[in-house]
Amino acid sequence: MVTIDKLVEKIEELPTPDFIVQKIMNVASDPNASAKELAEVIMMDASLSSKVLKLANSAYYGIPRKITVLNEAIMILGFKTVRNLAMSVFTYSSLFSGRSDGKVDRKKLWRHFIYVAVGSESLGEILGYPVKEELFINGLLHDIGKIALDVMSPEIVEAVYDITREKNLTFSKAEELLDIPPHTLIGGKISEKWGLPDMITQTIEGHHNPSMFIDSLNAEVVATVHIADVISNIMFPGDSLSFGKPKLSPDALNILSIRPGMMKRFVEKLRKKMKKAEEFLEM
Ligand SMILES: [Fe+2]
Ligand SMILES: [Fe+2]
Question: Which fold does the domain 100-283 belong to in CATH?
Fold first, then answer.
């Protein structure tokens, strides 16, 4: 049986965010950095800058006039949003590089990443969370362990997918049945390896069990991504290779003081934002 240790060894072979993406993460979280600095880092990669500009001009942000230079994108959308765009471009390209002849529909998996990012941000807006951009990136990366598993051991992912589809089970339930290391753990290791902030590592590790981090400073973020993930899985069964009925954690609802009626508002908002996020699906 595959052990977590064996998989961790393989993690070393996975793509790391390259120098530029790493630098973008650093500059964007440095409160003293200037827009010019961030623009200069992104401009080191021509294809990255053009993709970031394309997304900055997408319907999702609804900017009335065309943004043509990066400085402007940062001024209008903010550091963290531009960082999120760069991270989206990186995650997308790492998802689509490598083999794609397996059963995993990577397009749908990508759609799941985007919808959970958009969903986390939407729920944050309803709850009045102060830094909704953080929710986007946490949602975007929550299932990174699934890509890693697919790159490292496609046969495992296929075995999981066969069970989830045939028996109508969640991905996590199939991991248990097959006794394989959970994608939450693998994803957490990758997040550490990439030097991503603790908030992102905890979200990845706790998105199916937010009670794990109930006492953490990041409890709200983990709970928000959990809810966005459950709702996305209910709305689009199979996108994340998961079927069946994912359970909504009562702790997550408590952490965020979700009141009756809020979930309905959330789903309505999410549907509207999903339509606007179409450009994120094809990059
Ligand atoms: Fe997951
Ligand atoms: Fe997910």
Answer: Hypothetical protein af1432 (1.10.3210)
Q: Where are the domains of the chain?
A: 18-97, 100-283
**CA 243 / ligand 2 centre spacing (Å):** 11
pLDDT digits (tens, 9 = 90+) for 102-161: 778 889 999 999 999 999 999 999 999 999 999 999 999 999 999 888 888 888 999 999
Distance 246 CA to ligand 2 centre (A): 10
Q: What is the pLDDT of residues 169-198, one digit of tens each?
A: 999 999 999 999 999 999 999 888 888 889
What spacing in Å lies between the alpha carbon of 213 and ligand 2's midpoint? 17
Q: State the ligand closest to the CA atom of 148.
A: 1
From the CA of 31, how far away is ligand 2's center (Å)?
31
Among the residues of the chain, which ranges form H helices?
Answer: 4-11, 19-29, 35-43, 46-56, 70-77, 79-96, 106-127, 132-141, 144-152, 154-167, 171-178, 183-193, 198-206, 219-235, 250-255, 262-276, 278-281
Cα of 230 to ligand 1 centre, how many Å? 9
Query: Residue 101: pLDDT band by 50, 70, 90 thresholds?
Result: low
